[in-house]
Amino acid sequence: MMPHLQDVSGVVTKNLFLKDKKKKGLWLVSACHDRQVNLNDLAKKLGVGSGNLRFADEAIMLEKLKVGQGCATALALLFDKDQSVKFILDRDLVEGGHQMIYFHPMTNAATMGLRPEDLLRFLKETGHEPILESFQ
């Protein structure tokens, strides 16, 4: 994907759909594409305990976000009507001075950009207050 997006003015995201070991919590993580997301560290920050976060099954993602494997995106939070998916957002995406933030628009065959303030407005409208985290 990145060779096709090297000339965009902004930052490209990677998105991870996660569950905890006991399947009680669901999280969507959006981070800068080149950042390491340490699941053990993130689990500790979220209070679910080290080693307790893992990738959620595609069936859960289809049920909650209406997208399949490889298509996770913050934009799919539109379908999480009961706000059961918590949204973790890389702080740099909205505070890093980027003109645009690039996501998949429900399919990994395309990429679209949003201004950081428009992403935050979208999240507010869907009832998903982002949990800001810093990733290295």
Automatic annotation (TrEMBL):
SUPFAM superfamilies: YbaK/ProRS associated domain
All copies of domain YbaK/aminoacyl-tRNA synthetase-associated, residue ranges: 11-122
Similarity remark: Belongs to the PRORSD1 family.
Protein name as annotated: PrdX deacylase domain-containing protein 1
